[in-house]
Specification:
The structure is a single chain. With about 160 residues, the protein is of the alpha+beta class. It has 5 helices and 5 strands; from the N terminus they run αββααβαβαβ. The strands form 2 sheets. It has a 3-stranded mixed beta sheet with strand order 1-3-4, with helices on one face. Helix 1 packs parallel to helix 3. The radius of gyration is 21 Å and the shape is globular. It starts with 14 loop residues before the first helix and ends in a 9-residue tail after the last strand.
Length: about 160
Amino acid sequence: AAGASSNQQPHPHHPLEAEEHRLQQARHELEVRNRELTARLAPFMPKRSGIVGDHGTILQCFTLRSSLCAPYLLALHTIMGGLLRVRVADTTATASSLLALSQAAKTPCRVWPMDRMQAPRDCSATHAKVIAAYPQGKVISPIQLLDVPPLFVCIL
């Protein structure tokens, strides 16, 4: 049609193409929202100390899977960010340095030294049973919300 607008998206010919297009748009919107929330919270996030072995806050150690976390992004960023004031350190010695720095700056925090942490027991079988007991998509295992680098598995 000669009068058709050039800005219109072509209509997919197959229902699966339409669904794929819808999902791609939704994913893009979630990624944009995640970036916006991260940018809004950035001024409130504690900065890394510069001490070797300081991994920052819990939020700085993991990546949230925005496609699953969308309804909870602001709450998760807030809880896992600076408001809990939980920092992650390589060693007990680094943790002591961070605590001393925190006390000197009068900014209380808690520090989790990874050399004293033990990986929790694997709960994936229990989570799978709970997920299977409910309609698909109604229950999400907490670990499904995170992309976890191997270095930080011990603090889950």
